[in-house]
Structure formats: structure tokens, C-alpha cells
């Protein structure tokens, strides 16, 4: 039986504040730079949560009014503050914040799930404490999705009959603590005519694996986020590889970070593959490889 004790991986958080002064955080790996808020060009008919466009080394950068996007009060100085430039899910964007506080180092086990009852409108994926002060970890994927949701890419017509059949015979578990990211993966699977199981944490995923073990719905492919609270995707993968009943599972780590940057660490953890979010065709291709691998091993 799998151990549900969280494995500890280190991570760095960038702490910042909005007008309220309460501390929020973002994974430092998602941050490319921090700059003073530059002059912005307001685009007509842009989303109300987009303050405008900045020019950064000759490239256009959309700037998100983070306060407005997550339902906070506007900054006291709408032209002040700074930009946290993020590089996630194959795109860059600037987050307009009041101030950046500091960088702290912690363990994934230090990040706890949001309090029960936070609701679907919450923009946090976890909470932790720094110097006995509560810090909320921002769900940046949800913020971006609310402003510019990716187009639904239809991939069903591209599947061969053989690929469709091998996918249909595969039992998939998708694990992600971001509701938006989870829904994106589920939508891709459903567009392929596949229903899957889902979990919002590694702990819940292990419970699902144990529950379905020995049934006709026993999981053979796991698609897991990396940046999760309590137990991240690397620790989750290592736990599976150290558990005899789950060593055979095909594990695809699905990350909003650059997958090339994470490939060595994913391989060391025992993952079969790693993919950057979010491309429905790319996810489909990875799932076909996973399904073929599982089918071959089960012969």
C-alpha cells in the first residue's frame, strides 16, 4: 500500500503585496524578472483586467491589473508599484502589484491546501506561513485563464482508428491543484471521447489509485501537475515508483513551467515524460504515446 506521507521538495516563493498589504506568493520559477511599472499603452476593447501593454526590450507585454483580476481594491497609485513578469504556459505577462517583499525558501510540505470553503472564486492554490504570517499562493493560471482563455482545439478528427481504440482502453487519472488547469486537461480528454478520473492533490490521487486498484477501472496512466501543495509532482512520482503496486504506472508530468527546464528532474523522479501546459494537440500526442506504451507492456 502506498504511503501518504508527503515527500519534501524545496521551492522558492516570491512574496508580494497588493493594496491590502497581505502577503501573496508566486513560485519563483514562474518569474522571469521584476521591473518598475513602465508607461502603458491602453488598447481599445481590451479585457477590463488588462491595464495596457508595455514594451519590454522591443517586445509587447500585456499587463494584468492583478488587484482587479482577483477582486481586491485598486492600488493607491495606479501608475506606481512594479511588474512581476511571469513566463508560464508558453506565454509572458506582467502582473501589476503594489510591491515585492522578498524571496523565501521552503519545502513543498510547507504549502497547505486552501482553507475549506474558499470556493470556486478563490485565486489561491495554497497557503503557508512565513515568520508566523499567513501567505497565500496565487493561482496565476486561473488569473490568466479568466482574461484570455485558450481556444478549444479540436483534435478528434486527427486520431486514427488505432489511436482512438488504444486511448479508449486506457484508464487515466489527472492530478492538478488548479481547477482551471484540471478542466483544460479534462476537456481535451472528453474531446477524444475519453472520461477520466481527477484529483486535486497527490494525497487524493493516491486514495483514488487505491480505490480503483483491482477493478476494471484500475488506473494505468497518471497525468500530474508538478507545482502542487503538500506533495509536488516530483515527490508524488517518486512515491509511485517506490510502491510495488504502482511502479508500473505511466507518469506524465504536466507543468506550466518550461518542460525542458524540468526534464532532468522529472527523469530523476521516475516520470516517463514531461510536457509544458497548455496545448491540447501536444497533450493528445503524449497521451497516445502513453496509451501505446501501456498496451505494449500489458501484452
Mean pLDDT over the residues: 88
Cα distance spanning the termini: 25 Å
Structural Rg: 20 Å
Count up the helices.
8
What CATH calls the topology of the largest domain is Rossmann fold
SSE ordering: EEEEEHEEEEEHHEHEHEHEHEH
What is the CATH level 1 assignment of the largest domain? Alpha Beta
Largest sheet: 5 strands, mixed
Domain CheW-like: 10-149
Modified residues (4-aspartylphosphate): 225
Domain Response regulatory: 171-292
Keywords: Phosphoprotein
Give a description of the structure.
It is a single chain. The chain is an alpha/beta fold. It folds into 2 domains: 10-147, CheA-289, Domain 4 (OB fold (Dihydrolipoamide Acetyltransferase, E2P), Beta Barrel); 156-297, 3-Layer(aba) Sandwich (Rossmann fold), CATH 3.40.50. It contains 8 helices and 15 strands. The protein has helices spanning 66-69, 140-147, 161-168, 179-191, 202-212, 233-241, 259-269, 280-297; strands at 10-17, 23-27, 31-36, 50-56, 59-65, 82-88, 91-97, 99-107, 124-130, 133-138, 172-175, 197-199, 221-225, 250-255, 273-276. The strands form 3 sheets. The chain has a 5-stranded mixed sheet, with no helix packed on it. Helix 4 crosses helix 8 (280-297). It is globular and about 65 Å long. Residues 1-6 have low confidence and may be disordered.
Amino acid at each position: 500500500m502506498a504511503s501518504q506521507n508527503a515527500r519534501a521538495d524545496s521551492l522558492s516563493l516570491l512574496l508580494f503585496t497588493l493594496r491590502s498589504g497581505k502577503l501573496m506568493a508566486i513560485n519563483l520559477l514562474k518569474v522571469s524578472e521584476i521591473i518598475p511599472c513602465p508607461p502603458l499603452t491602453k488598447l481599445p476593447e481590451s479585457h477590463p483586467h488588462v491595464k495596457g501593454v508595455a514594451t519590454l526590450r522591443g517586445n509587447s507585454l500585456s499587463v494584468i491589473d492583478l488587484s482587479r483580476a482577483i477582486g481586491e481594491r485598486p492600488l493607491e497609485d495606479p501608475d506606481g508599484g512594479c511588474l512581476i513578469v511571469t513566463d508560464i504556459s508558453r506565454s509572458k505577462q506582467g502582473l501589476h502589484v503594489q510591491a515585492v517583499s522578498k524571496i523565501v525558501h521552503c519545502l513543498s510540505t510547507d504549502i497547505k491546501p486552501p482553507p475549506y470553503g474558499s470556493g470556486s472564486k478563490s485565486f489561491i492554490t495554497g497557503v503557508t506561513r512565513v515568520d508566523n504570517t499567513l501567505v497565500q499562493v496565487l493561482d496565476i493560471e486561473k488569473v490568466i485563464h479568466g482574461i484570455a482563455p485558450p481556444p478549444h482545439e479540436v483534435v478528434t478528427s486527427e486520431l486514427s482508428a488505432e489511436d482512438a481504440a488504444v486511448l479508449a482502453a486506457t484508464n487515466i487519472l489527472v492530478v492538478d491543484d488548479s481547477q482551471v488547469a484540471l478542466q483544460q486537461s479534462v476537456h481535451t480528454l472528453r474531446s477524444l471521447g475519453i472520461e477520466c478520473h481527477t484529483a486535486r492533490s497527490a494525497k487524493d490521487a493516491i486514495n483514488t489509485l487505491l480505490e480503483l486498484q483491482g477493478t476494471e477501472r484500475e488506473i494505468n496512466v497518471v497525468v500530474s501537475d508538478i507545482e502542487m501543495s503538500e506533495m509536488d509532482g516530483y515527490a508524488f512520482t517518486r512515491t509511485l515508483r517506490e510502491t510495488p503496486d504502482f511502479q508500473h504506472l505511466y507518469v506524465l508530468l504536466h507543468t506550466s513551467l518550461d518542460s525542458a527546464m524540468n526534464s532532468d528532474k522529472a527523469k530523476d523522479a521516475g516520470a516517463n515524460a514531461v510536457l509544458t501546459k497548455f496545448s491540447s494537440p501536444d497533450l493528445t500526442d503524449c497521451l497516445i504515446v502513453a496509451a501505446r506504451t501501456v498496451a505494449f507492456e500489458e501484452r
